[in-house]
Structures are given as C-alpha cells and as structure tokens.
Specification:
548 residues, four-stranded antiparallel sheet, 19 helices, single chain
Length: 548
C-alpha cells in the first residue's frame, strides 16, 4: 500500500476518522469532564471532522467531470478549512487548528515537491500543528489534547531522525507517542485523576491519528482501552465526575465564525480573555473560529461585532442539561435557508432555521442539532437544496433513532420551502400537514439567476465568464448580459405555463429597483398574478424566483 499522503490518502483519512469518532463518540462523551463536564466532546469532534470530510468531498466532486484528480495541497487545505467552519466545542476548535497547522506544512511541501510524500514532511506538519494549537489557546493546560498533540509531534520527529522512510512509519510513531501521552493525562490534570478518566479531547485526537495510520498503511493500530480506571468503590467515579459538573464556572459557551483582520483579532483575544475562560481563537487569512466560556454571552458576541463580522453564532447554556427539560411541543418545522433574511422570515413563521452560507452547506450533524433544538415530537424537515438530499436523509434517520417522528419533504429551493411553510398548520394531523406542505412545494416552480464563473456548455448554449445565467428547475434556460433582462426572460418562460403568485428573493447587493422593475413586468403582462418580495441577505445567488 503506498505510504504517501496524497489527495486520496487525505480523503481516506477523513472518512476513517469520521468512522472512528462515530463509533467512539458516546464513550468519549461519557469521559468528558474538562474543562466542563457537559458530555459532548465526542459529538463535537465528530461534527468537526464531518465538516472537514464534506469539504474534501467537495474538492473531489469538482474534479469528477475531468480526467484530473485533486492535488494533495488542495485536499489538505479543504480538510483544514472545513474543520474551521464546522468546529464545535473546545476540543473541536483545537482540532481545527491542529489540522490547519498540518495543512500549512503539507500543502507547502506538496506544491514545492509534488512527488515527495514521505515522513520528512509529516513530522514538521505535526510539530507546526501542536505549536499553532497552543498559540490559539489563551491559557494552555497540560494533560489535555494539547499535551497529546505535542507528544505525537515529538514521537514523529524522533522517528524521522531515526530514518523513517515514509509517512506511514512516521504516523505509526506519532500514534504511539500520543497513546502514551493520553495514558498519562490523569496524572497531569487533577480533575481527570479524581474522575479516573483520560482527557476526552486527547482521546478523540488519538482516534484521528489512528485513522491517519490506517489511511497510510492499511493497518489498524492498537486501540486505547475505554472506560474509567477501576476503583475499589465504583461510586467514587460518579462522585468525581459530579464534582466537575457545570455550576461553579461560567454559565455559557459561545462559539462563532468571525470575518476580521489579524490586528482586530489580537484586540479581541485580549478583551475576551477578561470576560471568561477556555478561550480558543483559531483560523487566519481573515476567517476565524472563536470559542469561549462566559457568564455574559452578549458581551462575548458584542466583542466579535467590534472586531469584525460574526456569524453562525451558537450560545449554549451549561446548566440546561441539569435543569428539568421543558415539555416537547407537538410539531415543528426545520428549514435550511441560504441567507439571513430568509432565516428571519422563516423564524417569524415558527420554523427552526439552519443557515447555509455560500460554499458552506450544513452537515448532517447541524441538521440533527436543529431538530433537537426544535424540541418537538414531530418534525417536518425542509432541506431546500437538491444537494442536501442525502445529508437531510441522514439527519432524519438519526433523529428517528432518538424518538422523533420526522418527515423529509424534498424541497429543492428556498422558494419551495417558503411555499410549504405558508400552508403549514401544526394543529392538524401530521400526515395531512405533510401532504399539504409537499403539495405546495411541488406546485412551486423555481428559478435562480447566477453569474457564470467560466466559459462552459449549457442547455441554452455556450456561456462566457461574467454572463448572467437564468436557471429554471436547476437547468440553464436563459443566457444574458444583464440581470434585469435575464430575469424578465426567465419570468416570461415560467409564467407562460400559468401561475398565481411570483416570489422574488433578492440578495444583498441587488438594488430594490430590480424588484420594482420585475413587479411592473409581472403586473403589465399578467394582471391576475401577485408578486411578493423578500430580502434574502447574503446568499449564493443574486436572485431566487418562485412561481406557484
């Protein structure tokens, strides 16, 4: 088996790491006692790696139509970027920074020496990863994932100096070093020793490194024994974990993505460090993932606003798990939306929303989390994107195993989701409601206007970079040079088959004048057709159109 970290190996690494964390996440959750005993480290690591794996798959999908394969540099950069976007919790955020550090070294080595993929570049990659992760943590603590990462790097460097000939041998050494360091974590961090467990984040990192060994060598390294140490009195374990439970520390975990420059982030770190603890800021090149535990969640978010533009803000109350859970509502709708404007619109209509930003499709874990957040016995799931069909199906299946009745309506565009939500009636029978929503969505034809990025063949002919494309039901139907004229041509084709209502969803940079022009166009040519206009916010295309 070739022991090189090429694009195929990176893809395999992601897949195997996701498989390993999926298999072990419940056990990792069970030993999560530091920095807060909130029992979600395994889940957070799984979601972080899931996002990384999706990003790598997107790189491979972009090459499916050609004869070429992705460059290893593109694959490792995608893995790191995906992890940054999807990082969850303290350990997930640190893992994202570890992958970023590795990507910096591996991508640079791959671009300067495409044919060389031995252990000589994996060892410095692990060293850079460990160093960058420590820099990202405001107050590094030994006996955590940071210690395990450092030990992996040291072991890899020893192997390299001893003459490791390939990446597989280096990865095996790194895994062995990490495994030994993980076993030592209870002696380094008193809270782990009292609970009789190893560090949960370090345990998750070991699973990721084990997947790296498998992807490079085909070998499955010796597993680390799970569970607690043996106490003469088993009740001591539960007592120790109980002493670590939320209550004495900050009340909230705040996580958000942030668009900001380096100087603003340096000021942000200083300000957040005075607000709470467990501060981790990872990323670079204008995009950052911020994680902190605080009592004043609003102040943490405001600090992000002052530094740049925060989004995908997640605030978790640590005490929520210990409180009596509220009664489930009978039914809820969970909808994926392409912009903040539609998120607000759907939320006003009572839906729980998941934001899909341009180039950042939600992972199945995010959809499952949204279903849980809806806290309902019955959920109608609206993916609103044909590309999310399989992701939504996986999320629905997971939610069903948790006792939630889920109906997945295969909406292919946001305007179909709006139509479905408009007829939603939570007080009628579930099946009847689903049928009505499905019928409304199916009766809504959809279109979008996009700008061509390159010359290519389409069903409407050859387009050039910069042309405006009018896609109807997913296929290019009109090619034009002007947004307004192309939109009118699209509307003409769609209304030729009839219709009673036109829905226009405008992107951030589209002027109101376009909507006014299109409303006049519809009114002049189709007196019986009404038009509604929504602002979608920052979305992937300038204009969405629905006709029902």
């Amino acid at each position: 088996m070739p022991q090189t970290l090429d694009a195929a190996a990176v893809r395999s690494w992601c897949s195997l790491a996701l498989e390993a964390l999926g298999r072990e996440r419940e056990e990792i959750d069970a030993i999560n006692v530091y920095p807060v005993a909130d029992g979600d480290t395994g889940t957070n690591l799984y979601l972080t790696v899931e996002s990384a794996a999706q990003a790598v798959e997107a790189v491979f999908a972009a090459h499916e139509t050609g004869a070429s394969v992705p460059a290893s540099a593109d694959a490792v950069r995608a893995m790191a970027h995906g992890a940054l976007l999807g990082a969850r919790g303290n350990s997930g955020t640190i893992l994202a920074q570890l992958l970023r550090g590795m990507a910096e070294v591996l991508a640079d080595a791959a671009s300067t020496d495409p044919g060389g993929a031995g252990g000589a570049r994996l060892a410095p990659a692990l060293r850079r990863a460990a160093g960058l992760a420590r820099e990202a943590v405001a107050h590094p603590v030994e006996g955590t994932i940071l210690s395990v990462a450092s030990a992996a790097a040291e072991a890899a460097e020893v192997a390299e100096r001893s003459g490791a000939a390939d990446a597989g041998a280096t990865a095996r050494a790194a895994y062995a070093g990490a495994r030994a360091a993980l076993a030592a974590t209870p002696d380094q961090l008193p809270v782990l020793g009292r609970a009789g467990v190893v560090d949960a984040g370090g345990r998750g990192l070991l699973a990721v490194l084990g997947a790296l060994v498998r992807s490079l060598t085909g070998e499955t390294p010796a597993a680390f024994p799970m569970g607690h140490r043996r106490y003469e009195d088993p009740a001591a374990v539960e007592s120790a974990i109980g002493s670590c439970a939320p209550g004495g520390g900050p009340a909230f975990e705040v996580i958000y993505l942030l668009e900001a420059d380096d100087r603003a982030v340096a000021r942000l770190r200083a300000r957040l460090d005075g607000l709470g603890d467990s501060l981790v800021v990872v990323g670079g090149d204008g995009l950052w993932n911020v994680h902190i535990h605080v009592d004043d969640a609003g102040a943490a978010v405001e600090a992000g606003v002052e530094a740049g533009r925060p989004y995908r803000i997640r605030i978790t109350h640590f005490g929520a798990a210990a409180e009596e859970p509220p009664e489930r509502v009978q039914r809820a709708v969970v909808a994926v939306v392409p912009g903040e404007g539609l998120a607000g619109l759907c939320a006003e209509a009572g839906a729980t929303t998941v934001l899909a930003r341009p180039g950042e499709p939600p992972a199945s874990g995010e959809l499952v989390e949204a279903i849980r957040r809806a806290h309902a016995r019955e959920v109608v799931l609206l993916p609103n994107d044909v590309a999310l069909r399989h992701t939504a199906a996986a999320a629905a299946e997971q939610a069903r195993t948790e006792g939630v009745r889920v109906a997945l309506i295969p909406t292919r565009a946001a305007v179909q989701g709006i139509a479905a939500l408009a007829v939603h009636q939570p007080d009628r029978r579930f099946d009847e409601d689903v049928v009505a929503m499905t019928t409304a969505a199916g009766a809504t034809r959809y279109a979008e206007l996009a700008v061509a990025e390159r010359q290519s063949w389409t069903m409407a002919g050859i387009c050039q970079a910069g042309d405006v494309l009018g896609l109807i039901d997913g296929d290019v139907a009109v090619i034009g040079a002007d947004l307004t004229a192309t939109a009118e041509a699209v509307l003409s084709r769609m209304l030729a088959a009839g219709g009673e209502l036109v829905t226009l969803v405008l992107g951030d940079e589209v002027p109101d004048a376009l909507a006014d022009r299109l409303e006049i166009y519809v009114r002049d040519g189709h007196l019986a057709v009404d038009t509604v206009v929504y602002r979608g916010g920052r979305q992937s295309v300038p204009l969405l159109i629905g006709v029902e």
